[in-house]
Write a structure and sequence with these properties.
Elements (H helix, E strand, L loop, with lengths): L29 E2 L11 E2 L20 E6 L6 H11 L2 E5 L18 H4 L4 E2 L12 H17 L3 E5 L3 H7 L12 H7 L4 H11 L1 H6 L5 H14 L17 E7 L3 H18 L1 H10 L4 H7 L1 H10 L5 H23 L6 E3 L4 H13 L1
Parallel strand pairs: 3-6, 3-7, 4-5, 4-6, 7-8
Antiparallel strand pairs: 1-2
């Protein structure tokens, strides 16, 4: 099954991101973590960082500073976050809309206990996958956990690729209090996802850029909100009472497009080898419906279709690989809006460490 993704060699290396920070030579080696790249069997170049004498302020003078590690799927966010947490007494708050659910382990690339290296991780395995976990619920739990981490003198490190979760946590997006509209939902449920997506683009083009266009439940909810409130306010239009008293440093990781696509390809095959299809079968046996797997998207959507006999395994792999790549591009579309993000290649660990150290001691 395992093959290399064919990439044209006559194309220049391209990134989906703004200019990177200054590049430095690579050094050191660390096994890249599942959920943060190709998988546990692939080496990631990263130096072994040490505490710097006088680099950290005393707790009495420390501001409420935190780190935010963002980027597309498969780029290496988890491994970087763990190393930063070990160096700077950090605790990691996951910002992943599917790792929040129990039982969705291999398919979401959930970090293992061994890969955590003793670093506390929060907001993983806190919700029942049979029920939808809302952005508002995430915002509440994440802010409570962030305050708890600060109270113990540690540094929260937000790590994940769900931009809406991160923006909600840090007050960059308003969470609308819009109750369900059964009459509207009944009308919308008759439409195809193509029609729903086109409708959302007309109502709220910015929200449409970051949403899964194949998920009818999310499309209907977004349309419901847009019809009730108009375009959801963001950034310059944010409500003052939605902000929180923290100072974040945004660190973004990205790779050239062809490198990231190969990682996505290799990681998908690795997860299949680890038993991803068995995991999906067991989830269904324990009561997770095929419809709910469709709603969960990506791996679980296409595995459910294969397990129902709707597509072959080869079709599942091909379609899923393309869908994950489209998802990575949607992630970058979302993150590019935030001009506070400092972008690096994963190998630029010395520059990242310097940026973080200077930020925390300032």
């Amino acid at each position: 099954m395992r093959t290399n993704l064919q990439i044209p060699t006559n194309q220049k290396s391209r990134c989906l991101i703004p200019p990177l920070q200054k590049e430095v030579p690579e050094s050191g080696t660390l096994c890249e973590r599942r959920g943060g790249g190709i998988g546990r069997r692939t080496g990631l170049k990263i130096p072994r960082w040490q505490h710097h004498e006088g680099s950290m302020p005393s707790l009495g003078t420390m501001k409420r500073k935190l780190l935010v590690i963002v980027g597309p799927t498969a780029v290496g966010k988890s491994a970087l976050s763990v190393e930063l947490a070990r160096t700077y007494n950090g605790e990691i708050i996951s910002a992943d809309s599917r790792q929040i659910y129990t039982g969705l382990d291999i398919g979401t690339g959930k970090i293992t206990v061994e890969e955590m290296k003793g670093v506390p991780h929060h907001l993983i395995d806190v919700a029942n996958p049979k029920k939808q976990f809302s952005v508002a619920e995430y915002q509440t739990l994440a802010r409570e956990k962030m305050d708890d981490i600060f109270s113990r003198g540690n540094i929260p490190i937000i790590c994940g690729g769900t931009g809406l979760y991160i923006d909600a946590l840090l007050g960059k997006v308003v969470i609308p209090n819009v109750p369900p509209n059964p009459k509207l939902r009944k009308q919308l449920e008759k439409k195809s996802v193509i029609e729903l997506f086109a409708m959302l683009k007309r109502l709220d083009s910015r929200r449409a850029e970051g949403i899964d266009p194949h998920n009818p439940r999310r499309l209907i909810r977004a349309i419901e909100i847009a019809k009730a409130l108009g375009t959801v306010p963001r950034y310059a239009d944010i409500l003052k009472n939605n902000s929180i008293d923290v100072e974040p440093l945004y660190v973004g990781l990205m790779l050239p497009s062809e490198v990231l696509r190969q990682r996505i390809h290799d990681r998908l095959l690795s997860r299949l080898d680890e038993g991803m299809l068995i995991e999906a079968t067991e989830l269904h046996r324990k009561g997770l419906s095929w419809k709910r797997m469709e709603d969960l998207g990506l791996e679980y959507r296409y595995m459910s279709r294969h397990l129902r006999g709707l597509i072959s395994q080869e079709e599942m792999i091909t379609q899923l690989q393309s869908e994950i790549w489209r998802y990575a591009k949607r992630q970058m579309t979302w993150f590019r809006r935030n001009t506070e993000i400092k972008w690096f290649l994963p190998k630029q660990t010395a520059d990242i460490e310097r940026k973080v150290r200077n930020f925390l001691k300032s």
